[in-house]
Automatic annotation (TrEMBL):
Its EC number is 3.5.4.13. Gene3D superfamilies: 2.70.40.10. It comes from Amycolatopsis acidicola. This is dCTP deaminase. The keyword Hydrolase applies. It is an enzyme of class 3 (hydrolase). PANTHER family: DCTP DEAMINASE. Keywords: Hydrolase, Nucleotide metabolism. GO terms for molecular function: dCTP deaminase activity.
Amino acid sequence: MILTGTEIRRQVALGRIEIEPFEPAQVNPNSYDFRLGPTLLVYRNHELDARAPEPADEVAIPAGGFVLSPDRVYLGSTAERMGSDHYVPVIRGKSSLGRLGLFVNITADLIDIGSHNHWTLQFHAVQPLRIYPGMRIGQVTFWVPEGEIRLYEGKYQGATGPRASESFRDFG
């Protein structure tokens, strides 16, 4: 079951969903629009290795925007700190940006219950596209879980900006 926008507002007021800062104007019929944080991470290497830490540079997104280039992966983050110990967040890009060829979190849209962060966002642009800090970049929906709840305690908990992949840790 997905929460409606009205129920998202109610659950935020009850403290069962964290969205900080919360802007009522960003509530939709069954989602909440989140905004792009002020920085991006850009990997230094063109060829990436899932078994090795990959160096990345942090780039401040200027007020005049930053142009995403094709054939690159960019990591951004939500301007809002979000999470819930009661609902499962699922994030997606805005359809209006998808119509401009921007892919947002195509392979990583499920957020673990109990994950409270400025969530890292993965971007891939089909063609050059200018993005801006604070723009509405995606939307989050909240789903009711069934069964015993185990809260997220993983490696990305507490992130305050974009975080590079730590997939190398999974190879132990």
